[in-house]
# Entry
Amino acid sequence: MNKVDNEPSRSKWIEWFNPQGRNLEGITFSLNRITGLGLTLYLFLHLIVLGTLARGANAYDNFIKLVHNPFFIFGEFLVVAAGLIHGFNGIRIVITSLGIGVPTEKRLLVVLMAIALIGTLIFAVRMFTA
Amino acid sequence: MSNIRWKVTFQIYRAKGDGPVHFDTFFLDVDPDEYVLDGVERLWAFHDRSLCYRHACHHSTCGACGMRVNGVEKLTCITPIREVTTDGGTLRIEPLRNFPVVSDLAVDMGSLYLRMDQVHAKSVLPVTEAEIEKSPRDWSAEDQQYIRLSDCIECGLCISACPISATDADYLGPAVLAGAQQTGLSKDPALVEIVDSEDGVWRCHSAYECTAVCPSFVDPARRIMNLRRQVLGQRWQGLFNRKGAQNLAVEEVTR
Amino acid sequence: MSKPSVVIIGAGFTGVATAHDLALRGCDVTVVERGDITNGTSGRTHGLLHSGGRYAVKDQESAIECIDENMILRKIVPSVIEPNGGLFIALNESDLAYGEDFIEGCEACHIPIEQLTPKKTLEIEPNLNPNLLLAFLIPDGTFDPLRLALSFAATAKANGARFRTFTEVKSLLLDGTGNVTGVRIENRAEGKPEELSADMVVNATGAWAGEIAAMAGGNVPVKPTPGVMVAFDQRLVQRAINRLNVPGDGDIIVPQRRMAVVGTTSFDVEDLDYVPVVDEQVQQMYERGCELVPKIAQTKMRGAFMATRPLIGGGDTGRSIARTFKCYDHKETQGIEGLVTITGGKATTLRAMAEKTADVVCAKLGIPALCITKDYPLLSYRQYYALPN
# Structure
């Protein structure tokens, strides 16, 4: 490692996911990126899956049988969690980015993340006890 | 400051010339109410005279002594050792991120200073414009005569903590945008071009690390968001001005 | 014809102001500093832009220097100054008695003062001790130490001066007859030694002036005298507050940004490079501060530090030494050519110290140019970084 590593560079993107020393908003910053990537990946997978429809009812039904195992259900749970976190954090960002409610931003964040967490728990219960 | 003494291990980032970066370890007996900067100074005075670091005022007005202490940005002259470690603990001290290292703990803040001039950030201003102390309606007419140095001490902690500044050298950075916000776009329209840009106010992604580490009550995150409002306000006005000018032009042609 | 070269040791107030003056007079200036700008005493100054009132009774030479330079700095570098004036407050009979001498002294030194009733004083500064008996309004101010120095340095750089920070003078280069011909330095940022020759070396190291002069076998009667400063975390007053009495400990409170800084004390020290903060003195500042501004008792301490003033003295100690400055031409004092030392003084008089030093240096080098810094507006301190070091 040399001194030059202290300067800004694209390769530092990995630091976006380092929670050390971060405050609450900084952690949600990292989470937003992870959930965003996760949701994008899910979108592509979802489109591919829908593509199986084109191959007829059988192909689709076979696929649906496949995804009833716990591994896939957990994956879907992650998608729901990601959607809730990304969505509610997104609401906070949109509101404050327009300069509205910035002094109360911390409270807004805590409330929205609490809603996302509660929502995640509800879905967890429903998905894993069905 | 009393007779209590803690044993604290200091791990100091060292970098000289083209040599490799490494950490040197020192053991100090410290008074826990002393400041981290006092510890660094003693290391230079009594342990290793080759240590380079920046400091000047020792009371949070110059902004020279910013460093990372155990991974978090601190203004070391007002950070008591008690706040960042315990008896027998370790302090890992590194220079601020996102600035070129001159040597050891000293970085070159030239880019920050020059950008502050670019956005005409005010170094002194009427106390009534520093609205965080009191809300505008609590100031009296008398108070307008008083001028004070602005809150921002150009310490660079916000830029070190900002994840965007870590990946983009062209991003103006929280302190600079906060300075532009203080000046105000309606008072200084020339700034609009600078801040309403890819590397200006739109590059921020609401990590709010800047406000979390600012030692000087600037609250850059809030100011960046307010600056966005100012930018949108300017754009909105610009829309009407252009329309107005267009109508005039049409009138002239048809007459 | 090449410009005469001058090496200035020390980038504190004296060093940067002298660099600015000499650069304007056509010298090739290099400033060497072992830390960064205002690394030493200058960085830790109380930040009081003196009106001279404090010295108007006992040290009128200093007082006149202060008021003149105060007015000049307000003109040439307003961007680093809080120009809100100051007050001298009387709290008891002894203070009131001093008031008579104070009025006379200020008049003799052309320091404009205005006497205020307690009621009026408390109107403009509500946090003062409500039992105050009398107050005088004077043109004090506050300045940012680093930025004041950077303003001079930025202007000097723009006019060709070079600043070598993190560069320590290890020894002076001497010719066969003991005259100074340059400096042997170490670039601390890279660990590399180097030699710089110069037509003149200016020792602007303040409290360390004696140590540097000794490198050439020279002598400078500097008496390093540290004092404590305690910063509290609220801007309790808009103006500098002084106790109306003979200069003593803890009798000045200076506002700066959102703080109130109380100072100072005066004692002897052995080791200049590190002066630890003394608890008793911090406590003393707290108590003395509360006498002037009782609300300090409800604020938190934000910082405490020591600063070592370079007093010039023979046998006197601390407060009785005159606060004016002195420029030593070592050719006159010790027969050593090539070295000039400037020390003593106060931050407020930095430009005057530089003028005097530059006059001496230019006379020795045969440079006819006169000083023009009195009316020369300084560049923005941020422009120091516009050119590389």
User: Anything to note?
Assistant: Chains A and C do not touch (no CB pair under 8 Å).
